[in-house]
């Protein structure tokens, strides 16, 4: 008698050991970034990293986007849905109570052929019942479902933080692109004014017979070409502003007033990238991938628990009488029961569900690994672009100084007859191209700083790394 009992106990203990350690990707992280350049006065990203650009307008735009962006609000509703799903899973830990009641009347007639009479009988009854049931979570099925729900809720919260980071980065990028479009339009208009000024000189010399009509035609072409560049830039200004309005959750509209911000007025922050290993705790998408892996691991436990019998405790009690709408002189009934449900044959369905859950866990493990690798790549590329764009902008600024000097000298020599128009045309084209390229490089540095903040997590930190006085 003792041997079978001990065997059953051992099997029960073994069956309860469904919790498996969560697999982690084995990735060797470097001690330092390959593309990082030592800088002074660098600071780690903060939660309000966009304020480091020194643009009050950008601060207001991001605040407005946080409140009105449809995608972010939809992501917030997904968090609420995950919270409610966890509440549903937690409800399985408690017994369910059901109250039922009924009262009715019925009549049955029987025809007795021998006596040729009809006998009728009225039946009245009233009952009130209370039933309770509770599933004994012996194999951890319910607790695994709750663990999966908790991990799913954490993943949805991390996704929300990731959506906030992406939205702030998108608004900042759109704002910088808008300012760059305005700047390039202004440069094109200034260059058109220069071309028209040179045209007046050429026209005066042509009327005086100092130059041929070829010079006049060449400068006319330059004026028309420069004028043709203005219309696409105006369209680009409107479209970038429209994209910014959509991100903020409002209908597209023309700007109400000129912004005090310019590309030159914006600060380009210097960011401390920290260590590659710290990136795992600073990016919400990595935390979300890890949480989904934890949920998949818990789902494996749930699927395995389905292989074992369910044990349900039930109890109930009730009152019943032979009266209508009355419980006078009732008869009481109490019942207790234990139910065991075990699948004997299911064609391999439950085993297939376990293997499916394990395959899903392995899939999310690889997704987790890819997320980490992609994050490291994004950070390295952002660091490389930041250093490269800074060097290119500095060189382009020096080129612009020389291009402006060359244009002034070319105009002066042409007006005095010391040089031909080709030198002026070449100086104009160089000046126009250098100015436009400098504006685009400034935009590249600003968007590169945004991408670096985003790649580093934008100041977000994993809740497990916060001190008691900090909040996520």
Describe this protein's structure.
With 472 residues, the protein is an alpha+beta fold. The protein is 58% helix and 13% strand. The chain has nine helices and four strands; from the N terminus they run αααββααααββαα. A four-stranded antiparallel β-sheet has the order 1-2-3-4, with no helix packed on it. Strand 1 and strand 2 form a beta hairpin. Helix 3 packs antiparallel against helix 4.
> How many helices in DSSP terms?
9
State the secondary-structure class: alpha+beta
The profile of the biggest β sheet is: 4 strands, antiparallel
Overall shape: it is elongated
Strand order of the largest sheet: 1-2-3-4
- How many individual β-strands? 4
The ordered H/E elements are HHHEEHHHHEEHH
Radius of gyration: 38 Å
Short recap of the structure:
With 472 residues, the protein is of the alpha+beta class.
Q: Which labels suit this protein?
A:
4-stranded antiparallel sheet
Topology:
Blueprint: H1 2-16, H2 56-68, H3 70-90, E1 96-112, E2 117-136, H4 141-207, H5 213-228, H6 230-247, H7 284-305, E3 310-321, E4 331-341, H8 349-415, H9 421-455
Antiparallel strand pairs: 1-2, 2-3, 3-4
Helix pairs in contact: 2-4, 3-4, 4-5, 4-6, 4-7, 4-9, 7-8, 8-9
